[in-house]
Specification:
8-stranded mixed sheet, 637 residues, disordered N terminus, alpha+beta, 4-stranded mixed sheet, 15% strand
Amino acid sequence: MSTSTPAAHWTRLPRRRLSRRSLLGASARAGVGVVGLALVGCSDDEPEPQERQQQAMSQQDEPPEPPEVQEQSSQQQSQTTEQQAAQAMPPSGPLQGGIIRSWLPTERHDRWDPHRSRFRHTQAAHSLMYNRLIRPAAASSGDLEADLCALPELPDQTTYVFTVDPGAVFWDHEPANGRAFTAEDIRWNIERQQTAVDASGLPDPHFFRRNAYDRTASAETTSDQSITLTTAEPDAAYLASVHASPFAWMTSPEAAEQFGDAWRDDPSDVFLNSGTGPYTPLLYNGFELTLARSGNWWRDDSAWAEGVTFTSGDANNIVSLYGAAAVDRADYPLSNESVEALREQYPDHPTYELPLAAPVELLLPLSADPESPLADPRILRAVGIAIDRPRLIERLYSGHARASGPLPWYLDGWALSGQALAAHPGYHSDRDADLAEIAQLLSAAGATAGSVPLPLVVADIFEGFFPGSGEALRAMIADGTGLEVELENRPFAESIDQLRSGERFCFLGWGAVPQGADPTDDWRRTLRTDGDGHWSDDASAELDALIDDMSTTFDLAARQQLAHQVQELLLSGDAHQWRIPLLNGIQLGLHQPWLHPDPRLFDYAWSTDHLSTSWLDTSLDTYPTGRELPPPEEETS
């Protein structure tokens, strides 16, 4: 691996490397012959036609070989033919070996402590170094699967019995030294999140998920491999929102003891990690992060690649990095135009599409100020209907997006179907009907053209990414409602703080990325009347009852049907919300032919852990021959 960074800037840790012998052995155990790892070459010494004829004539004059020699020769030819046929066929399943290279802004991570981090870039790296008790089987559906533990037994609606995988171990180096992961480790991890103190025992606000872990009323170990967790009341979203959430990592008590607050305060030292995951940190210089396959990884159905390298830097360089085979994927943060150009340049490279998890949305806070145009929810509903979503999709994403209802369309089973969504104003193709309903709403609210100046604030970062987007939306609202719209750009963070402090305006920008498919917790916080994220004095007993039912309904399909009822209620105007999702973009991408990605890698967000179940066909002639893990420290001294 080449880098412009001086070697002295790399941090190194001795580790157990997979030797070529162990790599071949692992490939054989996976059902791949050693011959499959060799390349078939073409000889430059092939005889010319005249020479072949002379050789054949000479062979005719030679005496015939004895039968046993002929049999041996026939067997050798048969073996050679079988080997050549095997080499010509593409592999039918995962192979072990190779190094996956991907772009990731590693310099933007926050802290290596897995309990005190919250940035998506840190989560991406942690997802290959740590495990959760259980994890999403598919991040967009809400189905769960085993990870460190099997799916729990539920004797009743407040009790969860987890059984630890008997093979689960920590990495085989300091500070846990390869010991078994136990039920006591689970109890310690939960209590650390709940206690939320620093090394000196003082409260530490960086334990961002304390409230989530406080939903665990008790944690009692019954053996080294069994623990019983309870909740104070039935909590149907408990498993997905707490133990299968994107940051629900399990680490070792030894790490907290040894690393102290450096774990929180030193983002440069990647070796302040202690996990059970498939990959361990090898090198980090702020620009590149390299992870190597754990020497004692305890599963045989993942971690196919010998290592994973995340490369950062100017996003504009991704195109050239991809062309030089320095990265295996080309998607976000490239523009779709850049990806389309790459697709034309490499027409034989596999392509894919993935939804952009952050929705484009309009925040419309209800106002207690009777003089504010935002005091009447009928005006807010008129504004939401007036936005021409198909036009906005074309304006922002050149058609690479889809309109989203109260839930984004890619959350399988949770979001309303396109057909159901199209039955509501603002989503169907009958624009005249939309304009008629807008007129009725404004008339009932007593609003006339020019009588209600409507403040519209656009996030500066959003306007910078989509120049002219604010004016486009202003024109849609003004044309559709006849209202006077006052447009202003403001910094994103400042705008959010002002909304929360009580200032009233319509706000256009990106919304938060869902941390899971199940919206129960988010709706309990933002839509339910007593939620701490409810920005309105408006109340709906029917909406509250539906959300309460979702909180206590453990059947996934039944809970999804309740979610459909919540969305229908919001779209009908019988209940009001301050957050109006408009659309979610679609990111185009392509990958190198040697990469065989797990399809779940493109689910929508928080899916980087599926790099461990992706694999490389290193036998392809195009696979870069120079990709190697840097040697451990003792081999370079």
